[in-house]
Every structure is written in C-alpha cells, then in structure tokens.
Design a protein that fits this description.
This protein is an all-beta fold and 337 residues long. The chain contains 1 helix and 21 strands.
C-alpha cells in the first residue's frame, strides 16, 4: 500500500495475491498447471480535474496450462493456454487533458476496465542436426474489453485521443524460425512473422481487420579468435491499432564488429546503424467514418558508435546478463511468443 502523486493524482493501492502450481515431469512428457488469484484496489482523486475520484477494485483468476512432448527423433511439441488480465495504468485512467500540441489533445479515461485475454499457443521444434534447427509457432488470442487508443475530431478540427474498452480483439500469429550453423565461424538465425488482427465494437457494430508481417535476420561470424562481428537486418511495421487504415513497413540494418584486446579485460567495438539512410519518416495512418489522420515521426539513422570497455578486478564479462527494470506484469500485454 502506498500513496504517490502522479500528474495530479493522489491514490492508495492495495494488492493481495494467492496462487499455486502443479507439475508432472516424465521422460518424454511434462505438464504444468498454474492457478493464482489477485485483488487490486486503487482509491484516490485526480486533483487536476476538480478532484475526479479514482475507484478501482477487481478480483481476477489466472489459470495457465503448459504441455510439452519430446520425441526420440528430436521433435519437441508444446501446447500452452494462458488466461491473462491487463489493467489500465494510471496514465490511461487520468482524465487530465495534456495539451502539448493544442491541435492534438490526449486525455485518459477513469472509467476504463481491465481487459482479459485467452491465449492458445502451439509450437513444433525439430533439430535436424547440429547445423540446422527449425521451429514453427502459432498463437491465437481473444481479448475482451480490449483497451485501445481512440481518436476523434470535433467541429473545430481538433483531435482528441483517449482510451476506450472497444470490445473484442482477435489475433492470429504465425512464426517460422530457422537457425543454421555450418561451422564454428558462422551462425545465421532468422524468423518470419505473419499476424492478423480483428477489432470489433459491438455497441457501434464497427469492425476493422489488419494484416501485417515482420522479418528479422542475424548473421554472426568470427574473423579470428579475438574478432567477432554480426550483421542484423529487420523489417517491421507501423503496428496495428483499432483505427489503423494502412500498414507501413520499414527496414533497418546494423553492422557490428568487436575485438578483445586483453582477454577478459579490454574490449573494443564498432557499430553502424542504417548506413544507407540518415533518417526515417515513420507514419501511422488512422481512419474512421468521419476522418483520416496521418501522423509522422522521425527516427535518426546512420549512427556510428565506438565503445571501449575495461573490466576491473577479476570480474568476467557479464554485460549481456544485466537485468533492466521491468514493468508490473498486469500493466503490460503478454507476448504471444
């Protein structure tokens, strides 16, 4: 329980969590069942909006099932079911109007409810030999009370963006992953994603379908025992939202070289991002029956980086294992993979 101030909000939060798990592990088969429940209660006032009350109290159950089968022919088949609850964060609930841009206003919605999703996942992994691994993943997600940003335009041509429980959201995702390692000097990994999203608002009987794809490839190589390198290429989309009209695609490229100067002590690395583009204009196109909006933001490109790192004392290089701060899991949508 704590009292904090966030954009004019003073509130008290209480969380009660209780859960348990059961697991069965055999030679070729494993099974896990998890069930836990929580009660989250927020109470407070938004001082910036004439003391609008915050009254949020929910009890939720979270069942999870995990099944894995491993065959002697190096097949691995898994099945997962997850029931998740994502609660609106404080910024989504705060009704204060942010007018950083007077023509585009952003405000929260204190009446938001949590969204619940049921995710079914299926995966097949095949190890052909030490050089080649193939993996296929499929996930289906059905979300009720889906929380989405929603934009409208008034008669003065001012846009207002807020958050709504729009109704139901369905997602189907396929992913193919391959890993090829012909020798100890080369290692290539890539994956291809295909995603279909369906948004439906039963109160207005409005539906929007969006399809997108993505690609990620990484080639790692060794020029010598002390010199390593990697080439990374990525194709990503502008994302899917309830009002997305057109999906735009962008690519990025990165080259990295690193050298060990003194073993476990001194390291030198050089990298360049997007060498063929000094900047990217990333657009997001939203549309409704009354308007069409195109927003643009820029990402810098052609970035050069040179790093020199020295490890003091007897510590080995563990930079890749450093943990970063995380966000509470009930405030973030779960990954489908």
């Amino acid at each position: 329980s704590q009292i904090v101030d966030n954009g004019g909000l003073e509130y008290n939060k209480n969380i009660i969590l209780l859960g348990g798990t059961y697991g069965l592990f055999l030679q070729n088969f494993s099974f896990n069942f998890l069930l836990y429940a929580d009660n989250v209660k927020n109470s407070g006032v938004f001082h910036n909006t004439v003391d609008t009350p915050l009254d949020y109290n929910e009890i939720k159950l979270y069942p999870q099932v995990h099944f894995v089968y491993r065959s002697k022919s190096k097949y691995r088949i898994s099945f997962n079911y997850n029931h998740n609850v994502v609660r609106p964060n404080i910024n989504y609930l705060n009704p204060f109007e942010y007018k950083y841009d007077p023509n585009n206003i952003l405000k929260g919605n204190p009446n938001l409810k949590s969204e619940t999703s049921n995710i079914i996942g299926f995966s097949v992994n095949k190890i052909f030999n030490e050089m080649f691994i193939f993996n296929f993943d499929n996930a289906i997600s059905i979300t009720n009370n889906a929380i989405e940003s929603f934009t409208t335009i008034n008669q003065q041509n001012l846009s207002l963006t807020t958050y709504e429980n729009i109704g139901k959201k369905k997602e189907i995702v396929f992913r193919l992953t391959t890993s090829l390692k012909p020798n100890k000097w080369l290692d290539f990994t890539c994956f291809f994603d295909l995603k279909y999203a369906d948004f439906f608002n039963p109160s207005s009987n409005i539906r929007n379908n969006v399809t997108e794809f993505g690609y990620n490839g990484n080639l790692s190589f060794k020029l010598s025992k002390a010199i390593n390198g990697s080439i990374y290429y990525n194709v990503s989309s502008s994302g899917t939202k309830a009002q997305t009209a057109d999906v735009k695609y962008y690519n990025s490229f990165k080259l990295r070289l690193s050298q060990t100067i003194l073993k476990e002590k001194l390291f030198l690395s050089f990298s360049i991002s997007d060498p063929f583009s000094s900047r990217k204009r990333i657009t997001d196109i939203l549309e409704s029956n009354a308007f069409r909006i195109t927003t643009t933001r820029e990402n810098p490109g052609r970035i050069f980086q040179i790093k020199l790192r020295w490890n003091f004392g007897r510590f080995k290089d563990k930079s890749s294992t450093i943990d970063s701060p995380s966000i509470a899991p009930d405030l973030v949508r779960p990954s489908l993979f």
